[in-house]
Write a structure and sequence with these properties.
Blueprint: H1 3-9, H2 13-24, E1 27-28, H3 29-35, H4 40-52, E2 56-61, E3 64-69, H5 71-99
Antiparallel strand pairs: 1-3, 2-3
Amino acid sequence: MTYGDAFSALGDSTRRQVFEAVASQPRAVGALAAELPVSRPAVSQHLKVLSDAGLVVCRAEGTRRIYAARPEGLAEMRDWLERYWSDVLENFAAEVNQGGRGS
């Protein structure tokens, strides 16, 4: 699993909704399907992709499977974004400082 896998998994808007739902509160597939405009099988497919990307985990509660966000799954994405964000801020600061000198 890489940050690319996570970005790819979250590239689908419905999948992002599924992820956001389990990130706010762990849920079973049926509860997710009741909240979203997609079927249970579609929710299951989205959860599989999110799981394969390392973004969600599943635990069994009796016969139900409860899905929750996996915070570590976002770590690589965050590291990647922060690396570029720092570069962007440094470049912006350099541009502002250069612009103030009349160049």
